[in-house]
Amino acid sequence: xxxxxxxxxxxxxxxxxxxxxxxxxxxxxSSPYTTRHLSNSASGISSIIDDxxxxxxxxxxxxxxxxxxxxxxxxENAPLSILGESPFYDKQRNVLVYCDxxxxxxxxxxxxxxTSSEMEFEQAVGFVIPxxxxxxxxxxxxxxxxVVQVNFDTKTIVKDVVSVPPRYINGSCRFNxxxxxxxxxxxxxxxxxxxxxxxxxxxxxxxxxxxxxxxKLWTVLDDTQMFLPNGSVTLFDKNREEVFxxxxxxxxxxxxxxxxxxxxxxxxxPRNMIDAGYMIDGMTVDSRNNLYVCVPGAGLILIIDPxxxxxxxxxxMPVKKPTAVTFGGPDLxxxxxxxxxxxxxxxxxxxxxxxxxxxSKSKVIGSKYANIKATDSQEEMCKCTxx
Length: 387
Hints:
CATH superfamily of the largest domain: TolB, C-terminal domain
Oligomer: single chain
Shape: globular
Mean pLDDT: 80
Number of helices: 4
Number of domains: 2
Structural class: alpha+beta
Strand content: 35-45%
Largest sheet: 5 strands, antiparallel
CATH class of the largest domain: Mainly Beta
Low-confidence stretches: 1-39, 374-386
CATH architecture of the largest domain: 6 Propeller
């Protein structure tokens, strides 16, 4: 573990500095200035290393809490995906909802009964999020150029929620991954499938709860700020302020949305991984606000500290292309991972996995449902540009 190695190195350096202070009497024959200068310099270095050791201790405690000892299992009875994405754990029903983008399907895997069902669409499915409607399994589904509400119990489309304005459609485009804010607003990425040719996407916000107004898309990040939008999370920082992070797969980084509408890059994929052709994809968050990010191609889930902006741990998958992650299960300590179809004889293609993390502190509160109930104040809260 890098943090433990760092701590060990700093402790070794601290002992060496202490030894140098004890041995300064060897310089007594030198001038008083030399002796005093050595003492002051060594003391200063010792103080700096003391501070560094304390920082490393804090980091090491965090790492110890993340000593997850993952147990990875393929869920044999879950449906296979061509391109699995957008997993969401519905705690009310103990089911995992996810989609197969290329297969144009939405899956619901029942964890209690180990059974599943599916619904097929005419367009590629970019994301799926359950709503706050409890009378039936109501899902918000992002397709290619529109968002629909679905009654999954009857396998029917209840209504078209919103369509993307034509000015945003540049060739082949579709929705790509989404998450909810603490208010139940949907942050949804909109990508250009020709992104490898430099065509860029957008980040929209969709509010389903505004009274007396048809649901609208609000532009949060335009194509100058966003390349290929992917996994995103909303969390509370230590000051209880809401923070939004999003993966930009095109720029191989994680971005933080600031209150003034600007973005900061808080983590970039290492250059050697970019040069190897890897990218980052779906993302979730744990109770310590660590980010879990998939790296398809490398077969990794990186655990990122967004404050330090660095990797603090990683999970190696038995397949090469994990795509998206979410916490689920009754105690919210199981990590569910979607994957994509790949050329491999080691495992059925596009399987769903679960990872048992042997650490209760990895638990999360759970994903936020899309809010479809009207509130008095949410219309005023939508301060982004109308799409």
